[in-house]
TrEMBL record:
<dbReference type="InterPro" id="IPR050085">
    <property type="entry name" value="AGPR"/>
</dbReference>
<dbReference type="InterPro" id="IPR058924">
    <property type="entry name" value="AGPR_dimerisation_dom"/>
</dbReference>
<feature type="active site">
    <location>
        <position position="117"/>
    </location>
</feature>
<keyword id="KW-0521">NADP</keyword>
<feature type="domain" description="Semialdehyde dehydrogenase NAD-binding">
    <location>
        <begin position="5"/>
        <end position="106"/>
    </location>
</feature>
<dbReference type="GO" id="GO:0005737">
    <property type="term" value="C:cytoplasm"/>
</dbReference>
<dbReference type="GO" id="GO:0051287">
    <property type="term" value="F:NAD binding"/>
</dbReference>
<keyword id="KW-0055">Arginine biosynthesis</keyword>
<dbReference type="InterPro" id="IPR036291">
    <property type="entry name" value="NAD(P)-bd_dom_sf"/>
</dbReference>
<dbReference type="Pfam" id="PF22698">
    <property type="entry name" value="Semialdhyde_dhC_1"/>
</dbReference>
<comment type="similarity">
    <text>Belongs to the NAGSA dehydrogenase family. Type 2 subfamily.</text>
</comment>
<dbReference type="Pfam" id="PF01118">
    <property type="entry name" value="Semialdhyde_dh"/>
</dbReference>
<dbReference type="InterPro" id="IPR000534">
    <property type="entry name" value="Semialdehyde_DH_NAD-bd"/>
</dbReference>
<comment type="function">
    <text>Catalyzes the NADPH-dependent reduction of N-acetyl-5-glutamyl phosphate to yield N-acetyl-L-glutamate 5-semialdehyde.</text>
</comment>
<keyword id="KW-0963">Cytoplasm</keyword>
<keyword id="KW-0560">Oxidoreductase</keyword>
<comment type="pathway">
    <text>Amino-acid biosynthesis; L-arginine biosynthesis; N(2)-acetyl-L-ornithine from L-glutamate: step 3/4.</text>
</comment>
Length: 309
């Protein structure tokens, strides 16, 4: 039996390059990419996407929709790394650890939409707690996240690593219109009862994310506190290979969170911090925006679809 053909459409972008690097030495698949002269040829791209077993789309949203519309071969399966289909009811959400049975749904899916980087952390923290009823539906959720500049794609990398790097900002908060495109994705897949306030930022480091969600104990479900929330997360991810919930004692000993500590991996650390005296809890996620937040997650979903675990 011939090896499955995996076509990376958009392999010159940040995510596509990382996926290509992660698949480069694989001998169980054949990776198909287009030569530079063919990448903007609609006919050649249509031929390639219809000749593969699994297409991995690393494209802007509009181009990703066009690529999907060009598929006429019913055997072609798709992993879309753009945000074009993340809230679409006909696409399987590609977060294997999100809920029991999600990995199996991904494995059997024809269309998988890769989670966004920020939503991976927010949903990873909030979904189990919302599902367990520990955070009420009417809780006013706020989320703050700081990502490495590669989260901006090639523009961010050029700004910080190109000729004008000396003038690149050290830190910048954005999304001030409170309409970031990841917000509906977080609201839907975290099972929130209302739209969260989401405030993202970029730092002067290449990759990595720290995402935090502050909570007031008095607004949680009756009797819930930091230990309760931690126990729920620990149960949910007990068997997860790529998501680790740090023990309360380990989290309590931390003095800071390094967004770069898991760079180059497909792993995510979740932490719960609490101040019992003041009735405050802080949820935190640390992971690589190019790993579990993008290319690592895409390859994890690919492995599930290829029955490689």
């Amino acid at each position: 039996m011939s090896s499955p053909v995996v076509f990376i459409d958009g392999d010159q972008g940040t995510t596509g390059l990382q996926i290509h690097e992660r698949l480069r030495d694989r001998t169980d698949i054949r990776v198909l990419t287009l030569a530079s002269a063919e990448r903007k040829d609609p006919r050649r791209r249509t031929e390639a996407i219809n000749a593969c077993d699994i297409a991995m789309l690393c494209l802007p949203d509009a181009a990703a929709r066009e690529a999907v519309d060009a598929i006429v071969n019913p055997d072609v399966r798709v992993i879309d790394a753009s945000s074009a289909h993340r809230t679409h009811p006909d696409w399987v959400y590609g977060f294997p650890e999100m809920t029991p049975g999600q990995a199996e749904r991904i494995a059997n899916a024809r269309r998988v939409t890769n989670p966004g980087c920020y939503p991976t952390g927010a949903i990873g923290l909030l979904h189990p707690l919302m599902a367990a009823g520990l955070i009420p539906d009417n809780y006013p959720i706020s989320i703050h996240a700081v990502s490495g500049y590669s989260g901006r794609g090639r523009a961010g990398v050029d700004e910080h690593e190109g000729p004008g790097a000396a003038n690149a900002p050290s830190y910048q908060v954005y999304g001030l219109e409170l309409a970031h495109k990841h917000t509906p994705e977080i609201e839907q897949h975290a099972r929130l009862g209302q739209r969260p306030v989401f405030v993202p930022a970029y730092g002067a480091f290449r990759q990595g994310i720290v995402l935090t969600v502050p909570l007031a104990s008095r607004l949680l479900a009756s009797g819930a506190d930091g230990a309760t929330l931690h126990a729920c997360l620990a149960r949910h991810y007990a068997d997860a290979a790529h998501v680790r919930v740090l023990p309360l004692e380990e989290s309590g000993a931390l003095k800071h969170l390094d967004p770069q500590v898991l760079n180059g991996t497909n792993d995510m650390n979740l932490c719960v911090f609490q101040n019992v005296e003041h009735g405050q809890v802080l949820l935190a996620a640390v992971f690589d925006n190019l790993g579990k937040g993008a290319s690592g997650a895409a390859v994890q979903n690919l492995n599930l679809m290829l029955d490689r675990g």
